[in-house]
Design goal:
binds pyridoxal-5'-phosphate; Aspartate Aminotransferase, domain 2; four-stranded mixed sheet; globular
């Protein structure tokens, strides 16, 4: 079929016209339980009444003015993020990729200002994903992302997964930072063990280099803490976020310690849309809801229920999948069958899931998912598995 859309996506034959809570609905009325959440974006589900109300009222007041002027909604969201995190300062973007671009620029400028312009190399980890821009694919470094797009932006050293000594051995006079996802999303829901993140923080402190965390997918309550690194009780110097922060509105940010952001003075970076009143009004409401400890406790409670149910399924279906992994409501099923076949089997059962690297199927329900919906998802997963166990 010819199409007017650049054919860069392999889309499923599903077309949704509306959504409510954890459900997406086709024109035919067919309902799908959404455990993809637009790839960890719809953190509060679809048509959340408070988000609908805030976007309506802000839309009637002001959408966009540009960063030529003061933006009170942006200030309020930045204040809230700073109050609830390690960060002292925030720059708003419109996506995770843009956050990656700024994290790289901020790092390079930090060392330039300190008098070390040759310190520009950033160590990244095999299987990571940091976006599709020139810096993003160079940081991601997989053949799939980079083939045909060379020459790549220089300054990235990609290290094998789970090899702390390889990281240590790669640090040279040129090393500026280590960039890592606390839980690899696209790479197949691979959590970095808490002691490893602590070890990386220690290495960065000892060597005097920056630690950049990419919490684009695992941030904003997804793991049961506001930010995933909180589980290891360490703090990054710079953090990229996006996805869940806007609950579906395109919004991202770079959050940083003042010390790491020293180079980013007036005129060094900018964005036409980043931090617009509409996006920030929505982001502020999302933050209000997600940063509430009761909300996060509830995420952990639901995650436990889901995880226990999945372990039961694993016991019964050892030929279909071999491991349940992840944290909070960022869960991966490591498959024995082809992961994309399993995603299709879920579609056939009106359940949306997402394939990832390492032959994993991602389960990323809205953080507002109910216990009953988790039970329904478990039933649908079990039914999808029967296709393979015959
Ligand atoms: C960890 C991580 N970083 C960066 C990105 C890029 O974000 P975006 O697609 O919003 O540009 C993604 C997107 O999946 C991601 O998962």
């Amino acid at each position: 079929m010819t199409t007017s859309i650049l054919p860069t996506y392999a889309r499923a034959d599903l077309e949704f016209v509306s959504g409510k809570g954890s459900w997406l609905i086709e024109a035919s009325g067919s309902q799908f339980l959404d455990f993809a959440s637009g790839i960890a974006v719809n953190s509060l589900g679809h048509s959340h009444p408070e988000l609908v109300s805030v976007i309506k009222s802000q839309a009637e007041k002001l959408w966009h003015v540009s960063n030529l002027y003061q933006i009170p909604e942006q200030r309020a969201l930045a204040d809230k993020l700073v109050k609830n995190s390690f960060a002292d300062t925030v720059f708003f973007t419109n996506s995770g990729t843009e956050s990656c671009e700024l994290a790289v620029k901020m790092t390079r400028k930090y060392w330039f200002e300190k008098g070390y312009p040759n310190k520009f190399e950033i160590i990244t980890i095999e299987g990571s994903f940091h976006g599709r821009s020139s810096a993003g694919i160079a940081a991601t470094a997989s053949e799939k992302m980079t083939k045909g797009f060379g020459p790549l932006l220089p300054g990235f050293i990609n290290i094998p997964w789970n090899d702390h000594s390889a990281i240590e051995n790669s640090i040279t006079d040129k090393t500026a930072a280590i960039l890592i996802e606390p839980i690899q999303g696209e790479g197949g829901i691979r959590p970095i063990p808490e002691q490893c993140l602590q070890g990386l923080r220690k290495t960065c402190d000892e060597k005097g280099i920056l630690l950049i965390l990419d919490e684009v997918q695992c941030g904003f309550g997804r793991t049961g803490k506001l930010f995933a690194h909180e589980w290891s009780e360490i703090e990054p110097d710079i953090m990229m976020v996006a996805k869940g922060i806007g609950g579906g509105f395109p919004l991202g940010a770079v959050m940083a310690k003042e010390t790491a952001a020293i180079g980013m003075t007036a005129g060094t970076h900018g964005s036409t849309y980043g931090g617009n009143p509409l996006g920030c009004a929505v982001g502020l409401k999302v933050m209000d809801i997600i940063s509430n400890p009761n909300f996060l406790n509830d995420v952990n409670h639901k995650a436990k229920r889901f995880y226990n149910g999945l372990q039961e399924l694993l016991k019964k279906n050892t030929s279909v999948f071999e491991e349940v992994r992840g944290k909070g409501l960022m869960i991966g099923l490591k498959c024995k069958v082809q992961n994309t076949d399993f995603v299709n089997a879920c579609y056939a059962n009106n359940l949306l899931t997402v394939p990832a690297g390492d032959n994993v199927v991602r389960l990323l329900p809205p953080l507002t998912v109910s216990d009953t919906e988790i039970d329904v998802a478990l039933e649908k997963l079990e039914s999808a598995m029967t296709i393979f166990s015959k």
